[in-house]
Design a protein that fits this description.
about 200 residues; rod-shaped
């Protein structure tokens, strides 16, 4: 049957067969090879990128070590701001002693001091002490300043102050009676510390 074809048809048929062979070669040999090569190149690139990121992180280790040291120093300084005692009763007694010392420094007379019930506040234990004092306005403001700026973290939660009759009628002399509720904080919420005082 091929013998009966003319030369022109034989050439046309050979060109068509060559085109089919080239098409099949491109589709089933060349394209899969280039696709797999591109996939391999992509995998190699992603692994190289991963290794680069890994070494960048490793090279930042001194930075993170320095940050860790800074965080430990901050944690130590914050630990110093809380009352040292872990039990609520001892912490309240320590807070009362601090307040009495601050009142003495400010020239304020304490009439009464009373330890209130402790209350947990967001991971901390608030230890309240209520004091009743007699003072003038300047001494009261000095006491408040000393409480708020103490090295321990102390907060005046409640302040009620009123003027009382002055036996000596000096102009400009104020005689105030004030009630302050001062909070100190304990960091540990151990079962013994949570017990009510």
């Amino acid at each position: 049957m091929i013998d009966k074809l003319s030369e022109r048809d034989k050439r046309f048929l050979m060109v068509g067969a060559a085109a089919i062979i080239i098409y099949v070669f491109i589709q089933f040999v060349f394209k899969p090879f280039t696709t797999s090569q591109a996939r391999l190149d992509g995998n190699i690139e992603s692994k190289i990128e991963f290794i680069k990121k890994y070494y960048e992180i490793l090279n930042q280790k001194p930075y993170y070590d320095a940050k860790s040291g800074t965080n430990k120093a901050i944690a130590t300084r914050l630990g110093e701001r809380f009352l040292d005692e872990k039990q609520a009763g001892l912490a309240a007694a320590s807070l009362q002693k601090i307040i009495e010392e601050l009142a003495r420094q400010a020239g304020v007379n304490i009439d009464r001091a009373r330890i209130e019930k402790t209350k947990p506040l967001g991971g901390l234990l608030a230890v309240p002490v209520e004091i009743t004092i007699r003072s003038d306005l300047k001494s009261l403001s000095q006491l408040l300043h000393r409480i708020e700026n103490h090295k321990k973290f102390l907060v005046v939660e409640n302040l009620v102050s009123y003027r009382v009759n002055n036996r000596v009628n000096k102009p400009g002399a104020e005689n105030l009676k004030s009630s302050l509720l001062v909070l100190g904080f304990v960091r540990d919420l151990s079962p013994e510390a949570v017990k009510k005082t």
